Amino acid sequence: MTAPLDISELHWMLDIVQSIDVGVVVLDRDYRIQAWNSFMENHSGRSASQVTRQSLFELFPEIDRPWFAHKVETAVMLGTRAFTIWEQRPYLMRFKSYHPITGLADVMYQNVTILPLRTVSNSSDHVCLIIYDVTNAAVNRLQLETANTQLRTLAIHDGLTGLLNRHHWETCLEHEFARHTRYSSPASLVLFDIDHFKRLNDSYGHRAGDEVIRQVAGVTRQMARETDLAGRYGGEEFVVLLPDTDLVGAGQFAERLRSSIAQLQIDHEGQPLSCTVSVGIACINSETTSYHMLIEEADQALYQSKSAGRNRITLHEAGTLVGH
């Protein structure tokens, strides 16, 4: 075991480190604590006399010993400082956060500097840890990242349904069409709207109409695969882009969706409501010259479903409309 640091020779330096608002810890090469300033006392709840000559790892079992020892030994071997930052590891020692203004962090976020201490003979018998409380900066960064994530979500999602908004799914459709042009991969578009929605709105009010839209969107989201792109086309009209899906597969998906929505029971102020949808389906093929054309073909099929009595699906197939 290495000899303990002679703290009496550093009394003037300790007066400084006791008053600064960072943690200062001195360890010997066996990771036993030799110095522990007032910052560490205040945040750990342990006095210097309680921790001196104690193992750092026994006092703070949350420290990842192999990782930390590797950081220290590398710093000692190279004779240079090493650093840990909160973005990679939130803290070295788990201290409670005392930031009542933010109130958003339970623990203190920490940056740590590992500094080898050299003797006059140029050997490193001790290591100094300098621990910085960066909770405010970390919380501000995390809040900013959360806000940016929320803004990105709002930018691409419809506020009422949570489905993709028209601008975003149309952009996705454009990309999918470009992928088809390059790789000849199939893709289908399912376009549908809620039957007699205006009548429902007039009879029960807009709140009931909004709830019906939300419920239909919920069923659509549940039935879509992770790779599918479900969006709100506008008003009571919805769209689902099915990548790598031919017309037959899209028809099967649309029929399951139509049937599930028809069975939906929606509670509005204690009164059960139900609805049906009419569906139009089109698939990218060799004659599809643009993604706009695909939308037009699906819209034509949707119109046919409505003209034929609603609550049904119609496929746009080789220039013809086939109802089901």
UniProtKB/TrEMBL annotation:
Its EC number is 2.7.7.65. Pfam families: GGDEF (PF00990), PAS (PF00989). Coiled coil: none annotated. It catalyses: 2 GTP = 3',3'-c-di-GMP + 2 diphosphate. It comes from the Bacteria. Its cofactor is Mg(2+). SMART domains: GGDEF, PAS. GO terms for molecular function: diguanylate cyclase activity. Its main location: membrane. InterPro entries: Diguanylate_Cyclase (IPR050469), GGDEF_dom (IPR000160), Nucleotide_cyclase (IPR029787), PAS (IPR000014), PAS-like_dom_sf (IPR035965), PAS_fold (IPR013767), Rev_trsase/Diguanyl_cyclase (IPR043128). GO terms for biological process: cell adhesion involved in single-species biofilm formation; negative regulation of bacterial-type flagellum-dependent cell motility; regulation of DNA-templated transcription. This is diguanylate cyclase.
